[in-house]
Specification:
By secondary structure, this protein is an all-alpha fold. It is built from five helices and no strands. It has helices at about 15-25, 30-45, 45-55, 60-65, 75-80. The chain is globular and about 45 Å long. It starts with 14 loop residues before the first helix and ends in an 11-residue tail after the last helix. InterPro entries: HI1420, Lambda_DNA-bd_dom_sf. It comes from Actinomyces ruminis. This is Addiction module antidote protein. Pfam families: dnstrm_HI1420.
Length: about 90
Amino acid sequence: MSLIRWDASDYLDDDDAIIAYLNEAAAQDDPKLLQAALGDIARAKGMSGITEQIGVGRESLYKSLSDAGNPSFQTVARVVRALGGRITITTAA
């Protein structure tokens, strides 16, 4: 039996799906999951376009959003904005 790696970025093909995916990742209260979701979305939207919008190098952004990365809040905020989102704060449930 042969397995192929599932990649969320293959299925994030419209803005509503992207925002729902990002909101669900944020709701899990796990920074690494949110970081991974941002990476998935950036790959789906085109990493080169995102890096141009936020002014960082492609390799730097890949590294920041990888499992081993540690992106600054500034990088996260810029990526969210480049993806068409906005960070908002609500009370915890």
